[in-house]
Amino acid sequence: MDGYFGSYVLVAALLAIGVAIVAGALLANRLLRPSRPTPDKLTTYECGVDPVGDGWAQSQVRYYVFTYLYVVFAVDAVFLFPWATVFDAPGYGLTTLVEMFVFLGFIALGIVYAWRKRVLTWT
Amino acid sequence: MMHLLAADPTLADFGKDPLWITIIKAVMLFVFLMLGVLFGVWFERKLISRMQHRYGPNRAGKFGLLQSVADGLKMGLKEDLFPRTVDKVLYLLAPVIMVVPAFLAFSIVPFAPMVNLFGVQTPLQLVDLPVAVLFMLAMGAVSVYGVVLAGWSSRSPYALLGGLRSAAQVVSYEIAMGLSFVAIFLFAGTLSTSEIVKAQEQTWFAVLLIPSFLIYVVCMFGEAARIPFDLPEGEGELVGGFQTEYSSSLKFALIMMGEYLHTFTASGIAVTLFLGGWRAPWPISLWDGANVGWLPVLWFFIKFVLTFSFIVWVRASLPRVRYDQLMALGWKVLIPVNLAWILLVAAVRNVVINEGDRMIGIGLGAVIVIGALAIWMRFDTVNQRRREARKAQVEAEFEELSKEPVAGGFPVPPLDLPHYHGVQHKEIPSGTN
Predict the structure, then answer these.
(1) What is the DSSP string of B361-406?
(2) How many domains does chain A have?
(3) Is there a contact between B121 and A77 (Cβ–Cβ < 8 Å)?
(4) How many CB pairs under 8 A join A and B?
(5) What pTM was estimated for this model as a whole?
(6) Nearest-by-Cβ selection for B76 from A29, A35, A115
(7) Are residues A67 and A102 in the same domain?
(8) B77-92, pLDDT tens digit by residue?
(9) Cβ pair A56:B160 closer than 8 A
(10) Which residues of A touch B245 (CB under 8 A)?
(11) Domain residue spans of chain B
């Protein structure tokens, strides 16, 4: 359990333990719980009134615009985090700083554009 | 000196434990989290009850301490239903996807420095990675899948809407949260949690980087979907949001546990990254023995409980915000402010490190501040609204003018009343009908 990937092996092991515990709980629950389904019990609850129509409602596309924006900023974070760690190391001086400024400037243009196009305004 | 070195674990101290120590630490973490959820629920209910002038749970056990145990048992033994229309596989998997990453996210939180665990010197932290904080963020993001899948597989409009909302909300607040960590990385020079705690030996980052801390505190509620921002399950609007179709069974218990663990992770990360981790608070930290051995677990726990209590306190104090307000706050305030703040910190830090570039650094800082202010003035929501209102008002005035060409823009009495034109005014005497 040493070397660079040692910790990641540990994470994988932890994941396995977590899945095992949850699966065990669900299995025990399955063995212990009563099961007497009736048609009424198996109806979708929704808001307590008998469901009307298909279960999947159509909804506005504006939710997915945010995922676009998210991708932009997630990429931004992927570049920012490593930059932040080497920023003050010797050999990375003002140039590194200015480069990141330019990059963040472009990113900021993106959000300003979305703002101007009223993507961020809800109504 | 050796003593001090031993007290501050670094990334190099990890991955050296024997297997049995690792297993013991993993079990300890799981026990801590499970007990934490059981008594955290009790603690939150008790605290919020006192804030609302009621007693809260007080029947099961002394002070109602066993209330959560009773609830858990009930949920474990209760009949579980798969409604007829649900997607069975995803419906079952969604709670698992929510709860397992929540466990993993907590594994990077350091509880104490090097401790003596059954004769082995080991840092009291299960895992530390060179990208520990990123790992925590990633685990938070994976849980969103659970929420979205729960909403989608339920085949219920409210559940679907709740899932979508949750996806948009959590990704938005995750960005702001990630950006609020960047300033810390600039100072600590690493993403490893143990080394970030080490970097807070002199000053806590909550003091040094107050804007980052405040932004994190706001994002914490958005990311963990706690009350001012619990839109994914807003019961006033969406019945129960993404969890509507999960009757109170074990699957529901798993969902609740996942959310609780997210709150714990949010508190744990707040303590680790901003509040000095396991370090003793100021007056106590003057004592040399405060940060050695098992004692720091106590400091960590006190800070952790206080942070969690703060989250509960906010829940008792604030109403739920509207969804558009939530998104506007995230995208128009938190993220831009964060970006400007990062640039400012970087510029100042550059001045401190590279003495020679002082003028350029200060110039850059000034440019950032002025630029950020200019953008703010241009795009601020309030200003935008004011401008639009003004525009609409002018528009309305033009509209009115076009109806009354005579007025020419000045307030004059109406000029075409009948008697101006000499039309006979006919009076109706009283008594006639």
Answers:
(1) HHHHHHHHHHHHHHHHHHH-HHHHHHHHHHHHHHHHHHHHHHH-TT
(2) 2
(3) no
(4) 224
(5) 0.82
(6) A29
(7) yes
(8) 888 888 888 888 888 8
(9) yes
(10) 44-45
(11) 2-321, 342-397
The answer to the question of residue A99 being in a domain is yes
Which residue stretches of chain A are H helix? 6-32, 62-86, 94-116
Q: Which domain holds residue A22?
A: 5-42
Q: Using the structure block, give the residue that is written with the tokens 């396991």.
A: B278
**Distance (Å) from the alpha carbon of A12 to chain B's nearest alpha carbon:** 9
Quote the CA–CA distance of B74 and B249 in Å, as a whole number: 8
Q: Measured between beta carbons, which residues in chain B are less than 8 angstroms from residue A35? A: 79-80
Q: Provide, as residue numbers in chain B, all residues whose Cβ is less than 8 Å from the Cβ of A57.
A: 157, 160-161
Q: Considering only CB atoms, which chain B residues are within 8 Å of A114?
A: 331
How confident is the model over B293-315, as pLDDT tens digits? 788 888 899 999 999 999 999 98
Is residue A11 one of the residues assigned to a domain?
Answer: yes
Dist. CA B299–CA B37, nearest whole Å: 20
Nearest to A2 among B16, B135, B160 (CB): B16
* Poorest-pLDDT segment among A36-40, B26-30, B206-210, B234-238: B234-238
- Cβ distance B379 to A3 less than 8 Å, yes or no, reads no
Among the partner-chain residues A14, A57, A115, the one whose CB lies closest to the CB of B157 is A57
Domain assignment present for A49 = no
For the cut 60, the answer to whether the pLDDT of residue B405 exceeds it is: no
- Asked if the interface predicted TM-score (ipTM) of this complex is over 0.90, the answer is no
